[in-house]
Write a structure and sequence with these properties.
Shape: globular
Largest sheet: 14 strands, antiparallel, barrel
CATH superfamily: Outer membrane protein transport protein (OMPP1/FadL/TodX)
CATH class: Mainly Beta
Length: 320
């Protein structure tokens, strides 16, 4: 009976919820059906998802674990998002980071849920530290983040025959790794590999499930002066098509910043039609005595607008 219940197809009210999840994942392929919406931190999102090499706060556990090597003091991050204005879809993150034993550490919990249908819980432990220094001001840092992801469906009764359907939950581990090269030329370059363990989630027997394939990312950040930074990134999933993202940040008097970016450019390069698949991003940041408030918005012609707000602040006497 358990196998029969497992093999049932999702009911009508679950299918739209799953469609919403996939849509918010940016038209994910079957191999990336789960844990697509796990980004944290409005600053990097506002920069077109491209500022991996310039992420040095606690959010680096997600973007670039090697960036945790430059984490200062102890800080807490609270992140809240409303993807594409869908009321039933909720996303948020709590993370704390600190420096201990010459290493930057981060512990985080991320939640993505569809009300009364589906939920993803992702627990992460990240660490990053300097690895080597070279003559002339060059340096190499490395980091890794272990992720424990849990997916669960809310049980329901089949609307056709009334039988109970319970897809249950599954939990798997995965690993991200990163290296950052810091240069004396105001340029940082980072490489990040995501989901090296490639966990597979299967909720319907005989389907083979969905595997989180490894994704490679290469990113750079160029600070042409103290107030201005240009960022760019390249990414590729399991030997598939290449995607390019770009962003720019301008800071005023170390108290205010404006940001903008473009994402998913690979789709445009391969297209001969109108640029409907561009995703435009933008946002701002306000800083005061170690407190950081960042906001971001990104919009897509087909999926609509998403909004994110992030608050970071020092705790336990952390650095301001």
């Amino acid at each position: 009976m358990a196998k029969l219940v497992r093999a049932r197809k999702p009911a009508a009210h679950v299918l739209p919820a799953l469609a919403v999840a996939l849509a918010c994942a940016g038209a994910a392929t079957p191999a990336r059906a789960y844990f697509e919406e796990t980004a944290v931190g409005a600053r990097v999102l506002a920069l077109g998802f491209s500022a991996l090499a310039d992420a040095h706060d606690v959010s680096a556990y997600y973007w670039n674990p090697a960036g945790l090597a430059r984490l200062r003091g102890t800080e807490l991050l609270l992140d809240l998002a409303k993807p594409y204005g869908i009321s039933e879809l909720n996303e948020g993150t709590i993370a704390v980071g600190t420096q201990r034993f010459g290493t930057g550490w981060a512990l985080a919990w991320h939640h993505l849920g569809i009300t009364n249908a589906y939920g993803e819980e992702l627990f992460s432990l990240g660490a990053g530290r300097p690895l080597m220094t070279f003559p002339g001001g060059h340096g190499l840092s490395g980091g890794a983040t272990f992720k424990y992801g849990r997916i669960g469906f809310v049980p329901f009764d089949d609307p056709v025959d009334g039988f109970p359907v319970d897809y249950g939950h599954q939990a798997k581990g995965s690993l991200d790794a990163a290296i950052t090269w810091s240069t004396p030329w105001r340029v940082d370059v980072s490489w990040v590999a995501r989901d090296l363990l490639q966990p597979r989630y299967q909720f319907v027997e005989g389907t083979g499930g969905d595997r989180l394939v490894t994704r490679q990312q290469l990113a750079g950040a160029f600070r042409w002066n103290r107030e201005s930074t240009v960022t760019a990134s390249w990414s590729q999933v399991d030997g598939g098509p290449i995607s390019f993202n770009a962003g720019m940040e301008v800071t005023f008097y170390d108290v205010f910043a404006i940001r903008s970016g473009l994402t998913n450019l690979a789709v445009i390069y391969a297209s001969t039609g109108s640029p409907n698949d561009f995703q435009y991003t933008g946002g701002f940041g306000v800083y005061h005595k170690g407190y950081f408030i960042d906001a971001a918005a990104f919009t897509n012609r087909d999926l609509g607008a998403s909004y994110r707000m992030t608050l970071r602040f020092p705790v336990f006497g952390g650095s301001r």
